[in-house]
């Protein structure tokens, strides 16, 4: 979602399939293919991590590499926290991802089970059962 919004903000067009490594070339994002290779190598603990790290460093330089590495690390940590606590996709993200979620196969990820994609929202725009400030009740749902 952010890839689409940020590419529109700078007047570009990115292939959203690039976010899952399914776009051709760079997917419309400078160094996109190298960033996806590195991100997947880190996240999946692949044997090509060292090679993808060196390739990305050569392509982006030290500052660019550090920015990508920090983004991958932060995203990985945030996703693990969300998945481990069972946090569902928020209502706004659920609505705006409807047009590409199935096409990209995002509902096949294990964390998709945390979200009822058919659920309606209450008046505050929060997923049902998430309101009221009672985290323990929410986690026991």
**Model regions low in confidence, pLDDT < 50 over at least 5 residues:** 120-124, 126-133
Given helix and strand content, the structural type is mainly alpha
Helix and strand sequence: HHHHHH
Radius of gyration from the alpha-carbon trace, in angstroms: 17 Å
How would you describe the shape? globular
The main sheet comes to:
none
Q: Report strand %.
A: under 5%
Mean pLDDT: 77
Number of strands: 0
Brief write-up:
The chain has 141 residues and is mainly alpha-helical. Helices cover 52% and strands 0% of the residues.
What does this protein structure show overall?
The protein has three domains: 1-30, no CATH class; 31-85, no CATH class; 89-141, no CATH class. The chain has six helices and no strands. It is globular and about 45 Å long. Residues 120-124 and 126-133 have low confidence and may be disordered. It is 52% helix and 0% strand.
Question: What is the secondary structure topology, with strand pairs?
Answer:
Blueprint: H1 2-9, H2 32-43, H3 49-85, H4 91-96, H5 98-101, H6 135-140
Characteristic terms for this protein:
141 residues; 3 domains; mainly alpha; 6 helices; globular
């Amino acid at each position: 979602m952010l890839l689409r919004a940020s590419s529109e903000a700078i007047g570009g067009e990115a292939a959203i399939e690039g976010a899952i490594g399914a776009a051709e070339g760079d997917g419309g994002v400078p160094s996109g293919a190298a960033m996806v290779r590195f991100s997947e190598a880190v996240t999946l603990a692949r044997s090509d991590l060292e090679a993808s790290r060196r390739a990305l460093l050569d392509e982006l330089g030290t500052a660019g590499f550090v920015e990508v590495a920090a983004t991958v690390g932060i995203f990985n940590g945030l996703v693990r926290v969300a998945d481990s606590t069972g946090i569902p996709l928020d209502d706004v993200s659920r609505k705006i991802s409807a047009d590409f979620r199935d096409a990209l196969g995002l509902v096949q990820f294990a964390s998709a089970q945390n979200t009822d994609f058919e659920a309606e929202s209450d008046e505050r725009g929060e997923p049902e059962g998430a309101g009221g400030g009672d985290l323990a009740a929410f986690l026991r749902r």
